[in-house]
């Protein structure tokens, strides 16, 4: 991640998202700027704030997808909220802070994952020994004696030990080769204490301290263990988790997670247009919308939010807001908030050619997804090029005629197209068959629907 240049970031995004070059360029710059900031030596480092981004574009053109992929590329903590959620009944001002808590939560997961990766080898060695101990209990007198070894009566302890060693070696080999994965053994499993010790919020405490107290209480409860019979492969998973947790210092995790959140976190605020009030009018729902904007302001501007892992400063968190802005305009947002999103990028509507590429090119392209689904049953799905062109053209015209839902239309069209096949495999289309999707077939299955506008409103 360290040395991804803006161009490389765009290239990574290109693997998944077609078009939208403007948006990609700007998020790439924002990402690179954070690396640059961290390399600034002087006091200026603190003062360099991220250039938050406002993405404008109608539904299904890739706004969310870009932000999501960006976070993946950066391996950054990421969370997505719908701004309109805050206008719902029951909302209180401090609810907006929950997005920061979600962000830290994700950061903790990320840090834990990477720590797990670090201690994996160490834990694997310990676990292997534990498994061997269960399979071939060590001989008495070696210091690690276990009871119930009545069958080992051999007076010659030395040779017995030798034998034991040999068997262990043999089993070690078998474990390595995965020959014993299905064998059942008995292990002690730690039981998590009953979740959710009932606590009623009385308004005196915020969410964070409440979660903290819950954690504390559940840690105080005695940990019970329970014997369980599981296969070796399951046992390995359970024991690995336990051992890895022992090897990881949780205070360090917390610290790093907060550091990661503050410097690399990305918060994606979707549907920001829904909290913009169209100018002039007052009263009614608009008041609360503006209220939500005011609540958002301190977080976007930089403030300290209390989470159960500690205080998180949001000054350098990158905010990406997105909205269609069909009814309202970005200038309908309160000025303070507008100023916090200095970079505006407009996402273009997708063309038919874009649809064609979206169907075909991305690493996770829909056509590939269906191929993989069929292939799991050894049925081979193929598309001719003009069939894909035709699907794109149909999706495009339905978008024009019925409603423009962007690339999401491809999902409905594809699933409708393949519906019968999905039903027939494997009953009447057995393994090792091949399905060829041609232009004629696409037309045959979809044309009647496309022509009949009333019908396609409901089905496609
Ligand atoms: N430019 C694109 N390239 C590839 N796939 C795309 C593109 N735009 C959209 N998609 C596909 O369409 C789906 C919906 O896109 P996305 O979630 O990004 O929409 P959005 O712009 O956030 O819309 P909304 O305003 O409704 O939230 C994605 O899952 C993605 O697979
Ligand atoms: Mg979206």
Automatic annotation (TrEMBL):
ATPase subunit of a proteasome-like degradation complex; this subunit has chaperone activity. The binding of ATP and its subsequent hydrolysis by HslU are essential for unfolding of protein substrates subsequently hydrolyzed by HslV. HslU recognizes the N-terminal part of its protein substrates and unfolds these before they are guided to HslV for hydrolysis. Transmembrane segments: none annotated. Coiled coil: none annotated. GO terms for cellular component: HslUV protease complex. Keywords: ATP-binding, Chaperone, Cytoplasm, Hydrolase, Nucleotide-binding, Protease. This is ATP-dependent protease ATPase subunit HslU. It comes from Cyclobacterium qasimii. Belongs to the ClpX chaperone family. HslU subfamily. A double ring-shaped homohexamer of HslV is capped on each side by a ring-shaped HslU homohexamer. The assembly of the HslU/HslV complex is dependent on binding of ATP. Residues 145-161 have a biased composition (Polar residues). ATP binds at residues 18, 60-65, 270, 336, 408.
